[in-house]
TrEMBL record, chain A:
CDD domains: fer2
UniProt keyword Oxidoreductase, yes or no: yes
PANTHER family hit by this protein: OXIDOREDUCTASE WITH IRON-SULFUR SUBUNIT (PTHR44379:SF5)
Organism domain of life: Bacteria
Signal peptide positions (record): none
Domain 2Fe-2S ferredoxin-type per the UniProt entry, residue ranges: 2-78
The entry's keywords: 2Fe-2S, Iron, Iron-sulfur, Metal-binding, Oxidoreductase
PROSITE patterns: 2FE2S_FER_2
MF (Gene Ontology): 2 iron, 2 sulfur cluster binding; metal ion binding; oxidoreductase activity
Protein's name according to its UniProt entry: (2Fe-2S)-binding protein
Species for this entry: Rhodosalinus halophilus
UniProtKB/TrEMBL annotation, chain B:
SMART domains for the chain: CO_deh_flav_C (SM01092)
Oxidoreductase listed as a keyword: yes
Record flagged with keyword Flavoprotein: yes
Origin organism lineage: Bacteria, Pseudomonadati, Pseudomonadota, Alphaproteobacteria, Rhodobacterales
GO MF assignments: FAD binding; oxidoreductase activity
Record protein name field: Carbon monoxide dehydrogenase
Keyword list, A-Z: FAD, Flavoprotein, Oxidoreductase
UniProt xrefs under InterPro entries: CO_DH_flav_C (IPR005107), CO_DH_flav_C_dom_sf (IPR036683), Diverse_Substr_Oxidored (IPR051312), FAD-bd_PCMH (IPR016166), FAD-bd_PCMH-like_sf (IPR036318), FAD-bd_PCMH_sub1 (IPR016167), FAD-bd_PCMH_sub2 (IPR016169), Mopterin_DH_FAD-bd (IPR002346)
Amino acid sequence: MTKVSMTVNGEAAEGEVEGRTLLVEFLREELGLTGTHVGCDTSQCGACVVHVDGKDVKACTIFALEAEGAEVRTIEGMANPDGSLNVIQQAFQDHHGLQCGFCTPGMVMSAAALLAENPKPSEHEIRDYLEGNICRCTGYHNIVKAIMAASGQDVSRIAAE
Amino acid sequence: MYAFDFVRPKSLNEAVEALQPEEAMALGGGQTLIPTLKQRLASPSKLVSLKGVEEIRGICRDDQGRVCIGGGTTHAEVAAGVPEYPALAALAANIGDPAVRNRGTIGGSLANNDPSACYPAAALASGATIVTNTREIAADDYFEGMFMTALEEGEIITEVRFPVPQAANYQKFEQPASRFALVGVFVAKFEDGVRVAVTGASEEGVFRWTEAEEALSSNFSPDAVQGLSVPAEGMIGDLHGSPEYRAHLVGVMTRRAVAAAG
């Protein structure tokens, strides 16, 4: 076992892990941050997307030890300081961007990474960026709409359902 | 996955040293290796993470005008960092998905030499040089078949040097589920001729389509390769496409790449 330490959602976190311990396992099982989901465990579905040093990565395809010293952000760190939903989360609620909600943490983290890089993405750019995030409920339209709305753009011309 | 020791060297020398034991493996971005470990298709005794080796990251230009990309440079960094070689930037920007591009590295991709990977086509069509901790290898001598390369055990790709063509384009026909190349063709036009490299199609991995190269070197237009075709024999056949289908796509994607390269 090796000691690992990183900053998770602004707070120092440390623990003992094996070489093979994945970041998502450390987050969920050691830190109890179960908001990051494991959908496929084969880096296809994107339910486990978190930010490592500001970059969106699949937490099932990075070892905990690779995040040594990193700034990690998970869905638990996305709400506003007063506990209310942040603008992306609120937009997902307002525009019915989720049904079962399983993929939503990854969708929100990917959306946040996209908007940090491209504050006013087109519908095409949003769909392109979400290539690695799979949703089996919504058909994506309302997710795209929510991200457009979160970026302050008019969503009246996007297909509703 | 099976247990292994995990080491994080801070320099190339430390990494080379750590890779000495026969069952040690280098870990680049892990976007292929970690899924492979999960499936127990690889079981190294020791994994040597190259993430902390700063000297093999980054992009620069050498005095011959080549774009030199450190082996540990991510796809996202290449996509944003080679404006003078737009076809290479576009290829990097379309590998996997954004989260994969933030981890996966060019050195990792070339060392793995997946028969459907994009980078081997760029390296071969560009006539790139693969630089390791011990030597320089011309792309023409580097690729030795599906998942096979000229790399020795424990050898690390430190840099890849790409001559910048006058015109180039990469066309990928994506396998719709995985987004890997069902067939990908990279066409690069240099002053002294055209190079065409095909990925995804052959059971031997990436290859140069020399017949098309000759035709395009005298007439760089889609018409020049209109009547040419590669034999279906030796092409990959699987549930996504027959050998005949892939052979057909090689011609189609080559013409599209030439048209797009202008």
